Amino acid sequence: MRILPAKASSIVIVAAALTLTVALPHFFRHLASPEKLGFFVVLLLGIWGVAGAAVSYLSTRPLPVLLLDYSCFLPDSEHRLSLEVCEYFGLHSRLFSDESADFMRHIYRKSGLGEETYAPPYFFQPDQRARFEYAIVEADQGIFSSVESLLAKTSVPPERISAVVAACSMFSPAPSLSSRLVNRFRGFPADVKTFNLSGMGCSAGTVAIDLASRLLRTMPGSYVLIVVTEATGLSWYYGDNRHMLVTNCIFRVGSAAALLTNDPTARHVAKFELKKTLRTHHGADDSAYNSAIQADDGVGAIGVALTKDLVRVAGSFLRAHISTLAPRVLPISELLRYAWRVAQSAVRQEWKASAAQVPDFTAAFEHICIHSGGKAIIDAVSRVMGFDERVVEPARMCLHRFGNTSSSLVFYELSYFEAKGRVRAGDRLWMLAFGTGFKACSVVLSALRDANMGSDCPWKKCIHRYPLKVGRIDAIRK
């Protein structure tokens, strides 16, 4: 049933008050003059006509979508993956040639990852072989832990959740991960809608938020649970294709869960309001489509190839993405400044400079969660957008502490802002992620209250060490 917003109720009360204080006194005052009663009818119809139109508008427009809360999975410390553990695994497993092991060591040293990222469970098994059962364990650990923590701190029981959206790019078992959640957390209604996203790459987290918001448009007063993870164990590549070996060096274990709702009564406890989402797909371009792709290496080994085109593609199609986003989020003053700079470059016939111009998105957002998929990607986004190190600091620190956790990385980055106590009520936040396809997805949030570091924050025991200086990160790697 459609929930009548508080503003609509107020309009009805005001209309009733006007009827009692203005229209009815006029009626009784001119009761003996029938020719003047027509004005009463017009006045009454005017009051309730305007009130009815206002109530109809408020009752049919989409309810605001709120991000009630979220939770990030923190694996056990025994599963930390340092360079030493990587080297031991490469030698002990005997699955890599000496040349491939040396190449991965070189990539890892300059990747921007620290010594405390997390490996999949099979790394620590006696046979050190990726198996389906270990992938299930990895997925279950992440999604069950994050959902359990989320439901506990929001006090929202499964009975109130109308839809579940699970996202995992490289692992899609049957029954689906969303069905595993319904089976694990008993109490979901029989008509709960479940969705499972796969193959979406690192953008799956923001895509899941977009999907949840669209579902809520048709389900007033409902809750949607989104769970994003990546089962990295079955995605490790054991061949000699260097484009595929890169993924072994940067992808790490991570999961997150979030609860979205359009129940107006939850506004006072929600953390953020979802303002906008934008998804752009550039798969019609072959270089974009093939820039990150799962394939056979030609000798029977399956891996995800991150080609040299990836950084160029990310920078190029980021421009296309922000050209669509800018008019929707930037203040008029910044749009005018941007137009003026472009016009100046065009007048001087500096066509390259004109094409390189981008608006200042820091004029629209206090906080920006940049896709921290790799050091080169962060550098490319920073270069294209003209961001300084202050803006990209959270992305670099998230990459250093957790690695590329794929679809959940934007939530780990968001938790960095909260752990630092930087988010204040009214602040605007932009999440930007890229995915295979090639996709770009933006999520715009507005903080409803001051944020603080929760008891389940993944940064709780290490935030005092951050931020590290970029030079220091490189020194640690060497």
Automatic annotation (TrEMBL):
Its EC number is 2.3.1.-. Residues 57-344 form the FAE domain. One of its GO terms (biological process) is fatty acid biosynthetic process. The active site is at C202, H281, H367, H371, H400, N404. Residues 366-445 form the Beta-ketoacyl-[acyl-carrier-protein] synthase III C-terminal domain. Pathway: Lipid metabolism; fatty acid biosynthesis. The chain crosses the membrane at residues 39-58. One of its GO terms (cellular component) is membrane. InterPro entries: 3-ktacl-CoA_syn, ACP_syn_III_C, FAE1_typ3_polyketide_synth, Thiolase-like. CDD domains: CHS_like. The keyword Membrane applies. It comes from the Eukaryota. Keywords: Acyltransferase, Membrane, Transferase, Transmembrane, Transmembrane helix. One of its GO terms (molecular function) is acyltransferase activity, transferring groups other than amino-acyl groups. Belongs to the thiolase-like superfamily. Chalcone/stilbene synthases family. This is 3-ketoacyl-CoA synthase. It comes from Vanilla planifolia.
